[in-house]
Protein 1
Amino acid sequence: MSGGAKTGLVVAFVVVGAIFPSPAPAAVLYDQTANPGLQKTESMSYAPPSDVEAADDFAVPAGQQWTLTEVDVLGKPGDPSSLQTYVRIYADAGGVPGGLLFQQDAIQATNGPSYNSPLSNAPPLGPGTYWVSVAAPAFWGWLNSSTQVGNPATWQNPSGLYGPTAGCGKTWTTRTTCFPESASEPDQAFRLIGSQAAVVQPKPSNQFSFGPLKRNVKKGIGTLAVKVPGPGTIALSGKGLKKSKASTSAAGTVKLKLKAAGKAQKKLKEKGKVKLKANVTFTPTGGDPATKSKSLTLKKKLAP
């Protein structure tokens, strides 16, 4: 894909042989180079009108944390090889790049125009979707990929002045919208090198507390407020109490209905009050149960 005064029509070509030397000792965390396309997407650190940038997404799996040490991209053979690149990592914002998480400029890359760009002090990335962008200061194009993984690649030209696409992509836009001729090659060709570690997610808190007890003396029942720190289930039990259960989708106060049962209910009707012990168990979603007990008294107004 081409645009601007320095570029002509899209040129078809074939990538032959190995593209990357094997960086050692490093692990390939993500690889999207198996199906290179025949077109490129300009991605450069030029000032306007050539302030163009391509980006593609990748996902860190659940339970993992990645620390990137290198980003490798495929470029078109014959393009200038300045051996200097610019790399940015973005958060995801609903299928397009969002907030900037990492930026490293003027990287002394190798193997141009299919650049291997070493990174310094990239932040660890937890589970989720992210976007990587690579640009070069010379007139350079990032090779497309004919296979889409995740979201389609995006492209931006904030000045809106770039060649035949003028006005398209002033903010992050699906690349094929600005370059419909690249519809059969929806992604970019890249791979990520680095280290990974297991992420142990802390279990949600199961600590809860009791709120006030409210009695309905006319009916001889009551409600007990239970304050919980997050979503989960709350179960009520206890000798002389009717069992009940409630659930909540968020932190807050849950009200449990209190009703005497069996001999306790008979005593309540005869004496007008009964002492009980409520056992409350809160089980947070994805966590362990916790149980607390509370002594309480139900009262009922007796008929004259």
Note: The radius of gyration is 31 Å.
Protein 2
Amino acid sequence: MTQESYVEKWLDECSIEKEREAKKNLPLNAEELSQLRGILGTLAWKASQTGPQYQADVSLMLSEVKNATIDTLQRANNLVREVKRDAKQCLRFPAWNLQLQDLAVITWCDASQHNRPDKSSTLGLLTAIGPKTMLEGEEEEIAIVTWRSSKTPRQCLGSNGAETQAITEGEDANFRVRAMLAEMFGHTFNDKAGLYVKLKKLTNGAIVMDSRGVYDAMTGNMSSLHGVRSTRAGYELTLAVRQALDIGTQLRWVNGLAQLADCLTKKNERKVILQLLMGNQRWRLIHDEKFVSGRKMKKQEMLKKIREQEALFVSEVAKMANACMWPWDDHEEPRSMGDEQIQLPLNTCQPT
């Protein structure tokens, strides 16, 4: 499913007078404000139908309309150019030829605290359907069926409060999609008790989060309100856990580099979702028993690249020294980098 013709026909940049372009903090006049609303409305339709990677940018800019400036309009124009450049981007809906029991509904939940103009938080949800072998760590092609980027229902004191609201909304979205999927396969439900029993038996579901604190509270803390400091957040979390257990929804944790909903809470954070779209919507859901965060994984990857570059540099200098018949002494010496002790070859060239 694509919206290439829609983007090419209806999406246009807003014109800005040259003398006003440099004044980024200047409030918009009535004509510019009207054009901004039109641009964001057109972008919102694209983002809500086939472009989940743009949803957060549009949502956050819509929250700025009340106090929009030239800078807001310029960022909207930049987004228009990006969307038009990728107008052929589409969503795939594969035919797996599987029974209902062999499918799984997976919802990625994320939140970003106090990143809106009024200091409210943003939650992001992305729900997809795929073969249930994904829950066992297999890479499979998935179909993205619904996503959402919006302001959290209420203000929160800390990041766990925002994450809890995202997980609560995500559990509800996962439940609805599983029920809809069961009805599409011809199953009917007579009462609430029968609904829960049937859904648990017929469908598979999972909620994926990247908050280690909330995940530990949901899976390991059995105290009142799961040990969450905020009473309201703890109550919401308790209900979400109970409902998830009632219908057999798995609770999963991933690092931030594998969180598909990250693009729905922060602007210009599209790396993960673009990786999914460029890979024909194939994804793997793996449980990391060591719970290594995305930040640590990035650091480890950076250190690995540094070691490779140093080893390459030293080998090239050694070749040059050998070709020029320079004295060259090879020996290993431990070297500290950050909080790790690593062994690097330290080669010295002695002056003659």
Note: The first strand starts at residue 103 and ends at 112.
